[in-house]
Amino acid sequence: MNPWIFVGVFLLVAGALPAFALLFAKYLGPRRPAPIKSETYECGVETHGPTWVQLKAQYYVYALVFVVFDVELVFLFPWAIVYARLPLYVALEGALFLLILAGGLVYVWRKGALEWA
Amino acid sequence: MVPLSWYLVFSAALFSLGLFGVLARRNAVAILLGIELMLNAANVNLVAFWRYMAPARMGGQVFVVVVFAVAAAEAAVGLALIISFARLRGSVDADQADLLRG
Amino acid sequence: MIQPGDLIASLGSWLQRFLLSLGLAPSLVSLGVALLPAILLPVISLMTAIPLIWLERKWVARLQDRIGPNRVGPFGVFQVFADMVKIFTKEDLIPQGADKIIFSLAPVLAMAGVIGVWAVLPFAADVYGVNLNVGALYVIAVGTFGMLAILLAGWSSNNKYALLGAYRAVAQLISYEVPMVLTLLVPVMLAGSMGLNDIVRAQGNGWFVFLAPLAAIIFMIAAQAEVGRAPFDLLEAESELVAGFNIEYSGMKFGFFYVAEFLHSFTFGALGATFFLGGWLGPGSETFPMLGVVYFLIKSFAVYFVFVWTRGTFPRIRIDQMINLSWKLLTPASLGLVALIAVVHRATQATPPLLQAVVLLGANLFVFFCALLVMRSMGRMARERSTAPRPGSGSGKTTDPGQGAVARPASASGD
Amino acid sequence: MALAQILFLIVAALGVLAGLMVVTVRNLLHAALWLIVALFAVAVLFAMLDAGFLAVIQVVIYIGAIAILIIFAIMLTRREALTAGPQDNRLWPVAGTLCALVFLGLAWSASNFAGAQSGPAKLPASDALVALGTALVSPDQYVVPFEVASVLLLAALIGSVAIAGDRNPSK
């Protein structure tokens, strides 16, 4: 049997359990809607201005670096499985791969893009 | 058993939708979403052919892995360009991107 | 026929025979029996949260010289049930202007992202949901649902503070995902497989925490940050963000975010035990799988206790310190560690295992001391900068010189 | 109809529906969320094609990284996006017709070439993951793409940070 069938069923159940609990709780609890209740909560002060606050551009830079380091996994995990069975230069290839990426990190660091401002 | 053509037709549908997004949308980020759809359609094709035609040769999977890297690089640089452009011109409309026009 | 050792396997075969005797089709029965764990295991994991919440509240209370829950039942053991009753019967509030579907979807995703990990956890030699050959990556993949849940929750609440909290939370999660994944690479490298059960078996000659202690430490720090607990609980910094991304959530929906956090912490404890402490390995665990479950739980709770201990001990760090710790210390250290371990591990393969272990340990210590040196120089630079008189600005912001690692390093901007 | 076929049809329908929503929904953030659904459907198809590694990677990279990056970018540019007029190009009917024609052509050729109705080939006994790793690092196979990918990622990192990391863009 394809093990992914198991995973699929598992994930479905894992999602269905909380979903059913939410439905259950919805009908168990009282329902007396009032406009004051559903107002946005900001520590008692009325909310002002648009809700969609601008994302800090700094977060975006972290996301960029993260994406690049996340993608290297695609290459590193298959390499990590096999390098011990292959000649030494394979391990060096992987190390070179990592060093090139580390160069990118050094560049970003030197440019000051990692600083929290 | 699912025949190979089903996967290919699905991939064709996804590709066409992505193409439509790229052609019809004005927002540059939305165009990028369309491109991601197209790349995924290509990936489905590659994996389907790998599985149905030559599962012993890993060329198909390696190609998909490279497409992942390219997609990530494209998204990173593309979105950076869009954001930079939005700061410069106050717009994300792809039709407004005519800085190079003489 | 029934051995005490493989209780679960014999239960499964008994069920299979029982269903066959009812006259059901054999193929249907075997499929049903194979998929039964897929239905039971999520329920079990959800139930685990109940004692977990009580246990952690008691632990943290003791660590902070408090008593903790002690009103409902002996030692307050029924406190969680009381909370459940309360939370179940609360009104289901959706704030105005919220994106209703996404708002309700987010807590479900948060739970699914935690429970999903349990599909691959090896509780014993033959007690596991499924032994995926990509188990380690599967753990990370399922974890991304939790990240998505936070972003969706913050965005759909129609609340500035929720959105700000979500931005912060996601920035933290993505920052710590890099060192987390890189350190997960180390057990995969040493075991030569991504399957969690294979990783456990590969530790028969020595737990990976001894071969790669630095990887285990970085994993622990990153796990604490991924769960978002003190000292990394910036996502719910009350004084700045009111409550974080879940500010508008109440009742059961909030309850799921709460349960997900506790369960997530324990799940990382179980993962730490699997990847670094030999999982279910222990004397007699091969012949009596049930004993393996006991070992596994003991080790999981040991790691989990360290998480709780950390949570109860450290104060919250500042956001710039949090970001710096990940990108300027943990990520470079784990990058170097992975590269060094790969070369050393491969080069010493022909040598006796003990020598290899010693060399690997040496490589870890080398990277560790390099990281320490970097930390020291960074801390020194920060101290010099903070003590140097700055024109125009008073002594408004002083960096903390004692915390060399996380203090603001000098901005080494080249431009 | 076999179970696998029903499963495929459900997943494929979900994927196509999500793809349609991606290109038609007005709210960009909803479009990005529909993109996540479409990507997940593709991941499920990968799992059905016995490419478990790619399925997991699809979730980690696409949903966990690229989609998050896109959502961040949408949040960053939403002020600019709000000022824009219509979301669609004036020529969208032409584009729609063109894409329908492309789809028909592709679908026709996909279901009519020799081997279109063939079943899956027999999987080799060895672990596909090990084979993939070996193929990626063997000098006679794909080691050059492996290292070039690293350089590509480096270039992408440097390029995007240089473009987006500018603190004070000249307005």
Intertermini distance of chain B: 58 Å
C-alpha Rg of chain A (nearest Å): 25 Å
Largest interface: B-D, 75 and 94 residues
CATH architecture annotation name of chain B: Orthogonal Bundle
The biggest beta sheet of chain B reads: none
Mean pLDDT of chain B: 85
- Could you say how many structural domains of chain B there are in total? 1
Strand content of chain B: under 5%
The CATH first-level class of chain A comes to Mainly Alpha
Structural class of chain B: mainly alpha
CATH class of chain B: Mainly Alpha
- State the low-pLDDT regions of chain B, or none: none
Helix fraction of chain B by DSSP (H/I, runs of at least 4) = over 70%
**Main sheet specs of chain A:** none
Overall residue-averaged pLDDT value of chain A: 83
Task: Describe the structure concisely.
The complex is a heterotetramer of chains A (117), B (102), C (415) and D (171). Chain B has helices at 4-24, 28-53, 59-89. Chain B is mostly helical and 102 residues long.
Strand and helix layout:
The complex is a heterotetramer of chains A (117), B (102), C (415) and D (171).
Chain A: H1 3-28, H2 57-82, H3 88-111
Chain B: H1 4-24, H2 28-53, H3 59-89
Helix pairs in contact in B: 1-2, 2-3
Chain D: H1 3-24, H2 28-48, H3 52-76, H4 78-83, H5 92-112, H6 128-137, H7 143-164
Helix pairs in contact in D: 1-2, 2-3
Q: What does the model show?
A:
Chain A has 117 residues and is an all-alpha fold. Chain A has helices at residues 3-28, 57-82, 88-111. Chain A has a single domain, classed as Methane Monooxygenase Hydroxylase, Chain G, domain 1 (Up-down Bundle), CATH 1.20.58.1610. In chain A, helix 2 (57-82) runs antiparallel to helix 3 (88-111). The relative contact order of chain A is 0.07. Chain B is mainly alpha-helical. Chain B has helices spanning 4-24, 28-53, 59-89. The longest helix of chain B is centred in the C-terminal third of the chain and has 31 residues, at 59-89. The N and C termini of chain B lie far apart (58 Å). The longest helix of chain C is centred in the first third of the chain and has 38 residues, at 26-63. Chain C has 415 residues and is mainly alpha-helical. Chain C contains 14 helices and 2 strands; from the N terminus they run ααααββαααααααααα. The model of chain C is unreliable at 393-415 (pLDDT under 50). In chain C, strand 1 (122-124) and strand 2 (127-128) form a beta hairpin. Chain D is mostly helical and 171 residues long. Chain D folds into 2 domains: 1-83, Four Helix Bundle (Hemerythrin (Met), subunit A), CATH 1.20.120; 126-171. In chain D, 74% of the residues lie in helices and 0% in strands. Chain D is globular, with a radius of gyration of 21 Å. Classes of the chains: A mainly alpha (117), B mainly alpha (102), C mainly alpha (415), D mainly alpha (171). Chains in contact: A-B, A-C, A-D, B-D, C-D. The interface between A and D is large, with 47 and 46 residues.
